[in-house]
Write a structure and sequence with these properties.
Radius of gyration: 19 Å
Order of helices and strands: HHEEHHHHH
Shape: globular
Length: 153
């Protein structure tokens, strides 16, 4: 493992701190970035996500994607986990936290909205992060592409 991968948690924490600092110190002066949208998608965020997944995408051999069907059990398991197990698991954990643990801080309507958002988030993980996780674990980029594509359908 290289230095980047070895200290990934440190880099993530540092980026969170830097992001909070920029938001606090220069929040008003960079507010205009939130207005840069195309089809309700924030353009700076879209560019940064693309820059994050591009290195992994160039490693994909698109002609070998047809071979993924040879390992249909893994794809079937992914579909089952993503659409049967994860929504209910996320609903359970969201219910515990938003209806029980944080009940004193949330009104019931707000808790229901958070619960619905958590279920959607659990059912559809960030596509870019799935590519990053696969890359960091030296997973099969072709197989990851098919799994992510099926899940996004």
């Amino acid at each position: 493992m290289g230095k980047f991968e070895k200290y990934l948690s440190v880099w993530v924490f540092a980026c969170i701190i830097i992001g909070i600092a920029i938001g606090k110190l220069a929040g008003d002066s960079i507010q205009f970035l939130s207005t840069w949208e195309f089809a309700t998608v924030n353009v700076p965020v879209a560019i940064l996500v693309w820059l994050m997944i591009y290195p992994m995408m160039v490693q994909i051999d698109f002609s070998s994607i047809k071979d993924v069907s040879k390992n249909w059990k893994g794809l079937g398991l992914t579909v089952f986990i993503n659409w049967v197990v994860k929504p209910f698991t996320m609903a359970f954990f969201a219910w515990i936290f938003f209806e029980k643990v944080f009940q004193a801080w949330l009104d019931p309507e707000q808790a229901q909205q958070y619960l619905a958002g958590a279920i959607l988030l659990g059912a559809a993980p960030c596509t870019a992060m799935v590519f990053v996780w696969s890359y960091l674990t030296k997973g099969d980029a072709n197989y990851t592409l098919v799994q992510v594509s099926v899940n996004d359908l």
